[in-house]
Specification:
- It contains seven helices and eleven strands.
- By secondary structure, the protein is an alpha+beta fold.
- It has a single domain (about 5-240), classed as 4-Layer Sandwich (Phosphatase 2c, domain 1), CATH 3.60.40.10.
- Strands 2, 3, 4, 5, 6 and 9 form a six-stranded antiparallel beta sheet that branches.
- Strand 2 and strand 3 form a beta hairpin.
- The longest helix is centred in the first third of the chain and has 21 residues, at about 65-85.
- The radius of gyration is 18 Å and the shape is globular.
- The chain starts with a strand and ends in a 10-residue tail after the last strand.
- The structure holds magnesium ion.
- Magnesium ion (MG) binds next to helix 5.
């Protein structure tokens, strides 16, 4: 059995009127969504995507990486149809990244599945070193992949908020997915762009190394993002892979 610890924090930031990010945590499922769209559209899109994803997962047993990807596609359909039913919500969309404990039925083991659409991110802190697991679906990230921008240039580019993939835009969406072996000591971070646009990655890594409690670390990252400008909503979920519980061998 995989044992996980987790913590989270979300904040409207210092410039926006409302928090259009939506995060969700429960044992074995962790989600960050960053909504966009005029008036209430962004907040509706992110919350609807998360609630739709959760309700589709309720019908699935055992949960696998494939069924998680399918549930994200169904969540996309929910956002698309809500946007087409209500003119006020037209054009709304949302990013979504998630981590879930999944089964690998063929071999009867558990893994972590990671899924992503958009430019929210999943990072992994492993042996003190921070790496981005997901690929951003954004204009600057594709320019970076083509070698036309450096990572440093992309991080401050004026068009860095243009995303190339989101839920709620088209009837079908491509969902990136990964399946990873959980190693005790690994620390995963899900976050909206309000974090990494305001806080440099080496500072994020240092905070994750320093604060063992995941709620403390998430709150500190949100505080640093506000200190850095807080120009967007900020959401952080931290998931720690804990050591396996020792099962005493029974006597007699
Ligand atoms: Mg954002």
């Amino acid at each position: 059995m995989i044992r996980l610890g987790w913590g989270s924090a979300s904040d409207v930031g210092r410039a926006r009127q409302q928090n259009e990010d939506f995060l969700f945590t429960e044992e074995g499922l962790y989600i960050v969504a960053d909504g966009m769209g005029g008036h209430r559209g962004g907040a509706v899109a992110s919350e609807l995507a998360v609630s739709s994803l959760r309700s589709h997962l309720d019908d699935v047993d055992p949960l696998t990486t494939d069924s998680l990807v399918q549930a994200v596609q169904l969540a996309n359909e929910s956002v698309v149809s809500a946007a087409s039913d209500d003119p006020e919500l037209s054009g709304m969309g949302t990013t979504l990244c998630a981590i879930a404990v999944v089964q690998v039925p063929e071999v009867g083991v558990e893994r972590l599945a990671i899924v992503n659409v958009g430019d929210s991110r999943v990072y992994l802190l492993k042996d003190g070193h921070l790496e981005q697991v997901t690929d951003d679906h954004s204009l600057v990230a594709s320019l970076e992949r083509q070698g036309r921008l450096t990572r440093e240039e992309a991080a401050v580019h004026p068009q860095r908020n243009i995303i190339t993939r989101a839920l709620g835009i088209d009837a079908r969406v491509m969902v990136d997915s990964w399946e990873v072996v959980p190693i005790p000591g690994d620390r995963y971070v899900l976050c909206s762009d309000g974090l990494f646009n305001e806080v440099e990655e080496n500072r994020i890594a240092a905070t994750l190394r320093k604060l063992a409690d995941p709620d403390d670390a998430a709150s500190e990252l949100v505080r640093l993002a506000n200190e850095g400008g807080g120009r967007d909503n900020i959401s952080v979920v931290i998931v720690d892979v804990l050591p396996c519980q020792h099962v005493p061998s029974g006597i007699g």
